[in-house]
Sequence to fold (225 residues):
Amino acid sequence: MPLHAITSAYGEAGLRDRFAAEIAAFPDAERRRLEQALELASALHAGDRRHREPYLNHLLRVAIRILSHYEVHDADVATAALLHDAVEDHAAELAPGGDREAAFAVLADRFGPRVAEQVRAVTNPVWQPGRDKNEQYREHVADSLEHSPWGRVIKASDFADNGVGLIHTTGPRTERLAGKYAPLIPVLRDLLTRPDTPLNPAARQRILDQLGRARERFSALLPPD
Fold:
């Protein structure tokens, strides 16, 4: 069942059940760590909304898509997927004063340095005044994921979820988000087709097909040049 269909029919509870099913076969220690990551993500994002749903739904879909659709059975990657917005959105809850480096250190201490580095790879930098936000975002993705193959996998799932989410968005926000994500498609395509990106051929092609459909969707949303 498509993840957004699960969301529509069963909400957060349905996504939690699907996530539990996906991690059931993990060794006990890894499964407990994934459950702890979900608890932390739930606490950090408790008051956050994404469109008309709890933000946690987005994090669950990103993690489930990696485990199920991309066939990546790596507890660190799934943990980082659940926490991929933790530092960007809630550094202050993780570390005193909201220091990002301290927040990454907290994640490294609780879940291991590999998880923290993957979260770092997909954490957007603080906006630099005077810069075009979309251009800064695009440059960050290209530079940060250059040497983070697993970060590319997380970003691909994040991008897939955001792209589908545009279907449920209306008004000026739709055009703004399409303008943000459309220029990222060739960047992600380049990164994901590199031989060191750890995806099997079927998963890689699935993502590339999604990028092609996203390009068509964004083209329809954006005004003509």
Summary: Residues 3-221 form a domain with the Hypothetical protein af1432 fold (CATH 1.10.3210.10). The two ends are 38 Å apart (CA to CA).
